[in-house]
Write a structure and sequence with these properties.
The protein has 308 residues and is an alpha/beta fold. It contains ten helices and nine strands. The two termini are 36 Å apart. Bound molecules: NADP nicotinamide-adenine-dinucleotide phosphate. One of its GO terms (molecular function) is androstan-3-alpha,17-beta-diol dehydrogenase (NAD+) activity.
């Protein structure tokens, strides 16, 4: 009888714990995606200027424009001077904010950062958006099937990981001195769990997620927020400007919704649609692996492939 009572208590505690966790998840989703539409952090409190890497198209351009719309002056960094000038003119004409453009190629490795640091010297930078990132043609192939000329290992590593680290090293010291700052790192849902056939890109996004969460813990007490945003599909050049629908967001809608989540969470899929898709993928991550493998090699599914 005693054993029965003991098991009943353990069962009740477990069910209570699961219910509490579910309630907490729902509450977090509600505050992050719905309450944040009404109560937003005033992003101007972090400082006058925002810096956005990869700012001439897609998600980066959308972040730059949304930040300008919310009252910040914007430093735009990308490879093409022509495109930089175009986006800068758009921002100045549409929102009346100041802009500064810096031409840089983030595949270039450590040598590009002294010039960027020099160009940013003396500017009151409140927000850094580490958005720049690249995939490679031939992705969705087995690792060895991607030719060296397309995989471009050092370029992907430099662009997706070194840029986040180095840009943070440049802006963080002044943020710490002022006791205020926001760093947004654009990761990907692909960094949330292993995605076969996108191995290198996937691994770089895991890096973005982990460095964001570590830095957020290290510097939160100094007034710095580090947020990792992990989108699913956003219609941009990277995704061949695929059609916007319930699952695929436009870059401008995505940036607006993702910026609303600042102050609510340090890790987010950015919008409610992507949050729900991520939740479903999490439930079936083993299935995702098996499907990815089946799509590639119908007769070569190894027995020990991810059985959870
Ligand atoms: N789109 C999605 O569905 C999706 C999903 C998950 C995560 N993401 C992540 O979101 C970020 C932005 O992606 P996106 O889809 O907006 O890409 P995109 O449309 O291809 O835009 C990339 C931006 O980065 C700049 N850029 C590219 N390579 C560069 C380099 N080597 N040096 C300097 N600037 C460079 C491009 O401008 P220039 O060509 O003028 O240099 C452009 O402004 C990436 O980190 C990506 O991994 C995207």
């Amino acid at each position: 009888m005693d054993l029965m009572w003991g098991l009943a208590v353990v069962g009740a505690v477990c069910i209570g714990w699961i219910l509490l966790k579910m309630l907490w998840t729902c509450w977090c989703g509600f505050t992050t995606f719905f309450l944040s539409e009404i109560w937003r952090v005033d992003l101007k409190k972090y400082g006058k200027w925002a810096v956005v890497t990869g700012a001439t198209s897609g998600i980066g351009r959308a972040y730059a424009k949304e930040l300008a719309r919310r009252g910040l002056d914007v430093v735009l960094i990308s490879r093409s001077n022509e495109k930089l000038q175009m986006v800068a003119e758009e921002i100045e004409a549409e929102y009346g904010r100041r802009t500064l453009t810096i031409q840089a190629d983030f595949t270039g490795g450590g040598s590009i950062y002294p010039a960027i640091e020099e160009a940013l010297r003396g500017i009151d930078i409140g927000i850094l958006v580490n958005n720049v990132g690249m995939s490679y043609s031939g992705s969705f192939s087995q690792f060895l099937d991607v030719p060296d000329s397309e995989l471009k290992i050092s370029q992907v590593v430099n662009c997706n990981m070194l840029s986040v680290t180095q840009m943070t090293r440049i802006v963080l010291p002044d943020m710490v001195k002022r006791g205020s700052g926001l760093i947004i790192n654009i990761g990907s849902e692909i960094g949330a769990r292993p995605y076969p056939f996108l191995s290198l890109y996937c691994a770089t996004k895991v890096f973005v997620r982990y460095i964001s969460l570590c830095l957020d813990s290290e510097y939160r007490s100094k007034g710095i927020t580090v947020q990792c945003v992990a989108p699913l599909l956003v219609s941009t050049n990277m995704t061949f400007n695929c059609r916007v629908n319930g699952l695929v967001k436009s870059a401008s809608d995505f940036a607006r919704e993702a910026l609303n989540t600042v102050g609510y969470t340090n890790y987010t899929n950015g919008c409610v649609s992507h949050g729900l898709q991520s939740f479903v993928l999490k439930l079936g991550s083993g299935l995702v692996h098996r499907l990815a493998y089946l799509m590639k090699k119908p007769r070569e599914v190894p027995e020990n492939l991810h059985k959870d």
